[in-house]
Design goal:
Helix content: 55-70%
Largest sheet: 2 strands, antiparallel
Shape: globular
Structural class: mainly alpha
Strand content: under 5%
Radius of gyration: 24 Å
Distance between the termini: 43 Å
Amino acid sequence: MAKNTIPVDTHGISLILKYAIASRILVIALIVLWRSLLSPYDTSASLNPSCLISDSDSNPNSQVLLPRLASALEDSVVWDSVYFVRIAQCGYEYEQSYAFLPLLPICISFLSRTVFAPFVPFIGQRAVLALSGYALNNIAFVFSALFFYRLSILILNNAEVALRASILFCFNPASIFYTSIYSESLHALLSVGGLYNFVHGANNAATLCFALSGVARSNGVLNAGYIGFQMLHRAYHAIVLKKRTYVGLQVIVSGGLRCLFIFIPFLSFQAYGYLNICSTQPGDGMRPWCKARLPLLYSYIQSHYWGVGFLRYFQVKQLPNFLLATPILSLSVWSIIHYVKLWPEAFVYLGLGSSPANNELTESVFCLGSDNKTMSAGIFENETSSTLQDVRSTKLRKRSNREGNIATRQSEDKHKPSSDSGCFPVVALPFTLHLGFMAATAFLVMHVQVATRFLSASPSLYWFASYIMASNNAGKRWGYIIWTYCAAYILLGSLLFSNFYPFT
């Protein structure tokens, strides 16, 4: 497969690096400000009983040299951050703690015992754990923003739109969670980094990133859908178009193994929970989920302790939470509708069965430009088959024959981007399908207010927002609305979340 030859945009990378760092400093400053001005609604998070299994390093009563700093760091650990820090300190002690996947606690524990270990005499073990979590997540976010920009350049082939989308990501409405001790930053780094490698053709690196994302957040396993989509297209081209059944079977086996590899870490953690909880209990005292045909601990915890389930959140008293999630869900639905209207055939048939003539390089923000045509073909076709070069050549010839018609349409429609930003519709389809599944899950199954951070790592959201902000008609107005939405949620998040008030 031909490798991408787009030169690295060092200026854009430098800008995104500055915006990513500035956004983290801003959120941290707001947290400190609100914590100093207001009293937390609930102070129970500062309680730190000894681990069930004795550990001398976790003695909460040990003397420290900087008690005020230690107290400030410990008190900042609120909401789910309490679970992550507790797991990093004491391991999985209770059944409900298994809802929090192990990658973040493992990384926090490792950093606290290595890089930040010298700070223990000054602020204590638990404060060092908190410091490790903050450092890890904020650094991970900066790298995820850089990967996001490079991915956007590959997909959009438009530096201006990619830069705007990446800046939006830096100041996304779930920013408070990317700064706090939550798994969002690690998940974004692994997911977006995996997507960058996937689009770049590094499937082994992409598969590894996707697998690790599944032990940062459970929805990380959904990234297997990208591998499955690639497998579907490669198998179709090999078996149906080129009549090479053996090659097609190789593609299916290889793709299936990659998808299985992505699921293995998450499933291994479920097996770990089963062995720790179910195998130590007698038959009569065994937990209900242990007796199920498929004893999946994660789904039981979500349902039993947090009431997660299909339509279970549809209650009148939850209306404010639905309103809180309305902006992100509306933007998601709008972006999906935009794609479907542009390419209904590609959406309905998953990009299969279309002739090169039907895969016209339609003008849109979701695009790969002329510099990336071989790469985009390589993503979804079987690079082991040299005969597929004929397909690429046919597409290029068809496009050349239609250049006159495209130019005419552009002169009639001033609101469309230039023909240089044309793309194969199939390239954007897996991103759109992934977002659609996630949005439907957030709305129908989960606590809907979580949608803001649940969808915050979806690249197509920011690509579409950047696109509508650049439109000639109402771009400036929508730009104000989108930036106001992001700014409001950053302010509200840093105010409410850091002081233990409910927020998404």
